[in-house]
Design brief:
Structural class: alpha/beta
CATH class of the largest domain: Alpha Beta
Strand order of the largest sheet: 3-2-1-4-5-6-7
Helix content: 25-40%
Strand content: 15-25%
Largest sheet: 7 strands, mixed
CATH architecture of the largest domain: 3-Layer(aba) Sandwich
CATH superfamily of the largest domain: Formyl transferase, N-terminal domain
Radius of gyration: 16 Å
Number of domains: 2
Order of helices and strands: EHEHEHEHEHEEH
Number of helices: 6
Shape: globular
Distance between the termini: 10 Å
Length: 192
C-alpha cells in the first residue's frame, strides 16, 4: 500500500480529510506519519487520536541535528512514498525535493500561477485576490519544487468571486473546496 507522510505547522485540516479518505478506502493509501515544526500544533493531537506516528521536529527539539535531514530520516524510516504539506509554513529543503521528486504535494489557496510565491499563504492570498478585484480564485494542488508554488499542477478547482465579496467570504469559500480538492488530487495520483 502507498504510504503518505504529512508535514504540517498548525491544524492540518487537509491531513484530516486525506486521512479519512484513506481510512474509508476511497484512496488506496495510508497516512503513516505526521511531522510538525510546531510543538503546539493541533495536527499532532489529531495524529495521536488517529494512532498515527507523530513527531515535532524543530531546532529546539533537535539542537544538534540538521532539522531537514532529520525530517527526511523520519520519512524514510516510515517508508513514505508521498509527502503532503498540510499548511506547512517552512520552505522545503532541496535534499527533501531530491529524495522525493514529484512526490511532495502542496495545496495552495489560489489559482496558480496567480497569487503565489514567497509570503503568499493563507489570508494574504485572499486579501490579494480581493484587492486585485480578481473574478476567479480557487485551489491548486501541485508538486513542490525548489521555488515557491511553481511545481507542476495536479488539480485545480475554481470559484467565481463577486466584486463586492469580502476577504472573509472568499477565504471561507476557498476553504470549502480545499479538502475535497486535496482528496481528489490524491485519488488521481494514487490509482487503485
Amino acid at each position: 500500500m502507498i504510504k503518505i507522510g504529512v508535514l504540517s505547522s498548525y491544524n492540518g485540516s487537509g491531513f484530516i480529510a486525506l486521512n479519512k479518505a484513506c481510512e474509508s478506502g476511497y484512496i488506496n493509501a495510508e497516512v503513516v506519519v505526521v511531522i510538525s515544526n510546531n510543538t503546539n500544533a493541533n495536527v499532532l493531537v489529531s495524529a495521536q487520536n488517529n494512532n498515527i506516528n507523530n513527531y515535532c521536529i524543530n531546532a529546539k527539539n533537535y539542537p544538534n541535528d540538521d532539522v531537514d535531514l532529520k525530517i527526511l530520516e523520519v520519512l524514510k524510516e516510515h517508508q513514505c512514498d508521498y509527502v503532503f504539506l498540510s499548511g506547512y509554513m517552512k520552505k522545503i529543503n532541496p535534499s527533501l525535493i531530491e529524495a522525493y521528486p514529484e512526490k511532495i504535494v502542496n495545496c495552495h489557496p489560489a489559482l496558480l500561477p496567480n497569487f503565489g510565491g514567497r509570503g503568499m499563504y493563507g489570508r494574504f492570498v485572499h486579501e490579494a485576490v480581493v484587492k486585485e478585484k480578481a473574478t476567479k480564485t480557487g485551489v491548486t494542488v501541485h508538486f513542490v519544487n525548489e521555488n515557491y508554488d511553481e511545481g507542476k499542477h495536479i488539480l485545480q478547482k475554481e470559484i467565481d468571486v463577486s466584486p463586492t465579496e469580502s476577504v472573509d467570504s472568499v477565504e471561507n469559500r476557498v476553504k470549502e473546496i480545499e479538502t475535497t480538492t486535496i482528496v481528489e488530487a490524491f485519488k488521481k495520483l494514487i490509482k487503485d
